[in-house]
């Protein structure tokens, strides 16, 4: 399992680009050619994370 923290909305350079429209923590795990994402709002201010 690996992770990144997106402080501002944008796209990471990891795994071809993970894009988010709000700051968040992203954990990801590659399983049998599939990528599972786990998102977390570290600010605890968002009602929806997409």
UniProtKB/TrEMBL annotation:
<dbReference type="GO" id="GO:0005975">
    <property type="term" value="P:carbohydrate metabolic process"/>
</dbReference>
<dbReference type="InterPro" id="IPR004103">
    <property type="entry name" value="Lyase_8_C"/>
</dbReference>
<keyword id="KW-0456">Lyase</keyword>
<feature type="domain" description="Polysaccharide lyase family 8 C-terminal">
    <location>
        <begin position="3"/>
        <end position="47"/>
    </location>
</feature>
<dbReference type="InterPro" id="IPR011071">
    <property type="entry name" value="Lyase_8-like_C"/>
</dbReference>
<protein>
    <submittedName>
        <fullName>Polysaccharide lyase family 8, C-terminal beta-sandwich domain</fullName>
    </submittedName>
</protein>
<dbReference type="GO" id="GO:0016829">
    <property type="term" value="F:lyase activity"/>
</dbReference>
<dbReference type="GO" id="GO:0005576">
    <property type="term" value="C:extracellular region"/>
</dbReference>
<dbReference type="Pfam" id="PF02884">
    <property type="entry name" value="Lyase_8_C"/>
</dbReference>
């Amino acid at each position: 399992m690996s992770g990144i923290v997106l402080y501002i909305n944008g796209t990471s350079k990891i795994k071809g680009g993970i894009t988010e429209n709000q700051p968040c923590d992203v954990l990801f795990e590659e399983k049998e050619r599939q990528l599972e994402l786990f998102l977390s709002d570290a600010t605890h201010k968002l009602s929806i994370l997409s």
